[in-house]
Specification:
Blueprint (H helix, E strand, L loop, with lengths): L2 E4 L9 H14 L6 H5 L6 H12 L5 H17 L8 H10 L4 E4 L4 H11 L6 E3 L12 H10 L6 E5 L2 H10 L2 E4 L12 E3 L8 H6 L4
Parallel strand pairs: 1-2, 1-4, 2-3, 4-5, 5-6
Organism: Nonomuraea thailandensis
Protein name: HAD superfamily hydrolase (TIGR01509 family)
Keywords: Hydrolase
Length: 214
């Protein structure tokens, strides 16, 4: 096992509820309502996709860059105040670091939002961080995970990805990585090279290694 890559929203930190709150506030400014059902359509997606969807649902005549600014400002403000690390994530990070396994954070969120999370989680716990600002195509495209592997000089087929969304799982699988899925808002089915669990408390470093081809 040459590296392990963590997704951020919903996998490393419990930020989906923060996204829901900010999306609800921004939609109110756009003169429309927002529900958890709307949020489900955007799990694991990019900021551009979120903004486009919100404008389509609201029908508001507001520039996309303005909505993006409202979203980023709101998220950074809330996340800087502190985030809740998901059960088992911190322990798994520490175990990987103790064994000298390189670790990366790979997220579809923008750099400003990732930086706000890392102020709480610790930037020094990751050997590489790849955000939406570092790629031309976000998940479900494999580019984010291929980029992380390239930056670390490792082979994707010898890497394990931890994800919570179908988009993220699709990106990791397309990149050639093994996957541990911890479904959050949408179901994810088991598959070859993929372990589905209800929490990261259920997996250790040995379980990650077992997913890789011998």
């Amino acid at each position: 096992m040459q590296a392990v890559f963590f997704d951020m929203d919903g996998l490393l930190v419990d930020s989906e509820r923060v996204w829901l709150r900010i999306e609800t506030e921004v939609m109110a400014r756009l003169g429309a309502e927002w529900t958890p059902e709307h949020q489900v359509h955007l799990v694991g997606g990019s900021m551009e996709r979120t903004v486009d969807y919100m404008l389509a649902v609201s029908g508001a005549d507001v520039p996309p860059r303005t909505v993006r600014e409202w979203m980023v400002t709101g998220m950074v403000s809330r996340l800087t105040a502190g985030v809740h690390v998901m059960p088992g994530a911190s322990e798994l990070l520490d175990a990987l670091r103790a064994e000298g396994v390189p670790v990366g954070l790979v997220t579809s969120s923008l750099k400003d939002i990732a930086d706000a999370v890392l102020k709480s989680v610790g930037r020094d716990r990751f050997d590489v961080v790849v955000t939406a600002d570092d790629v031309t195509r976000t998940k479900p495209d494999p580019e984010p995970y291929l980029t992380a592997a390239r930056l670390l000089g490792v082979q994707p087929v010898r890497c394990v990805v931890l994800e919570d969304s179908p988009n993220g799982v699709a990106a990791a699988t397309a990149a050639g990585c093994a996957v541990v899925a911890v479904p959050s808002l949408l179901p994810i089915e088991p598959a070859p090279g993929r372990l589905v669990v209800s929490s990261l408390t259920e997996v250790g470093v040995a379980d990650l290694r077992d997913l890789l081809p011998s």
